[in-house]
Structure formats: C-alpha cells, structure tokens
Amino acid sequence: MDYSVKQEGKFRYIEEGQGETLLLLHGLFGAMSNFRGIIDHFRNEGFRVIVPILPLFDLDLLHTSVGGLQKFVHKFIEHKDLRDIHLLGNSLGGHVALVYVLKHPERVRSLILTGSSGLFEHGMGDSYPKRGDYEYIKNKTEQTFYDPRTATKELVDEVFGIVNERLKVIKILALAKSAIRNNLSDELKEIDKPTLLIWGNNDIVTPPYVGREFQRLIRGSELHFIDKCGHAPMMELPDDFNVILKQFLLKLKQTEPVG
What is the CATH T-level fold of the domain 6-255, as seen in this structure? Predict the structure, then answer.
C-alpha cells in the first residue's frame, strides 16, 4: 500500500500505527519501499512507526555529512518530542543512528542496526556514479542483494535518476566519504542501550565480519545472520527480519519494570 507523506515545516515523514515509537532511518539510496515490510507488520503490533525522509540532497555541501544528517534527525525528534525510541537504521541510516545515540542517549530505548556503516564498508558512493550507463547501474544495484531480482526496475530507475544529476552525484560522494572518515570504533564501547544487529550472510557492502565487530564493540549486543541475504535484510527477506525484530522488542517489553 502507499503511505501518506506528512509535511511539517522542513520535515517530511511517514507515520503509521500507534504505540511505542519505532523510528526508521534509510540509507544512501534508501526509499520508503525499503521499509514496507517493517511498516506493514509493526503498525499492527502496537507500534507507532515513523520514517523521516532524510535530506540527502537538500543540505548545503558543507553539512552533507553523517554529522549533518544526525543534526537533522535530532531536530526532527525534538520537533515530534519523541522519547523511548526504538531507533533502527540501515546502511548509512545505521551510521546516523549510531552518532545520534552517542550524542542523545536519553531519547533512545533501543538500537537496531542492519548492514550499518560506521566501521567499514565497500563505499557504494565510490563506484556508483557512472552516469548514463543504465546496465552498469542495474548491475551495481543488483549487487546490493543476494537475489538480484530484489532490485526491481522501479528501484534501478530511481538510482539511475539520482546518479544522472551532477549535484546529487557530488552529494553522494560527500556522504560516502564522510561515512568512511567518521569511523566509530573507539566510541562504540560508550553505547549502553539494548542493541540488535541483523546482518545478511551474503552482504558484500558491509560483510558479515563487520556485524561481528559491531557485536564485539557494543556491550551486550546480540547479532543475528539471515542466510541468502545481502545488504538490506528488511527489504530482501522482510518476514525473517520481522521475526528477529519482534522477538527482540518483545524481550525488551518483558524486562521493563512494572508500575
């Protein structure tokens, strides 16, 4: 189904369902379709699912960075006065979520990362912008997934459109370079929120060993691998992803103090 995009000032976002807040942060080539499986499932499971549309191409070049996106997310969360958030990020969105929880832990109940940058990634932005070559873009987009059929024509067309605009290409490169520079290995030990890591066993952008390193560095985090799955598990195998996420959230609820 299509979701209505709400606009409040400079913020555009989707909001579905009622209950505990599940805030989803998309990646560099993210679209609302990436999170369709999560939204459709959890809005009927007692969650208020919110997806802010990150201004990947709207910030000035100086602020087109992981830090600039984190500031935008902070302003959005303050604007909506969100608290006890279950914060979920994929790819670059995971990186932004990590920086946010390090700076504003008081707003976060739990952290969920899937294919997150922040430690190491084969930077998509380094090789994506090959303008005008549709077949090349199609192949690169398919490599994001274990099953290339997950890269629908709609998704390939969207990526192709982005990389054929010169200013957008410059901003993709700026974000990719910012993600590489902004390595969080020394800071992850400061995170003390319940953390769930869901990784595709066949992710070639942030390979499985990256998930294991996140688990080693984030105290008490739990790591789950999904087989025959690439860089966007919530998109490629949404049912498997939702089972793992639901168990994690249910376990959190059971450990909350009564009264």
Answer: Rossmann fold (3.40.50)
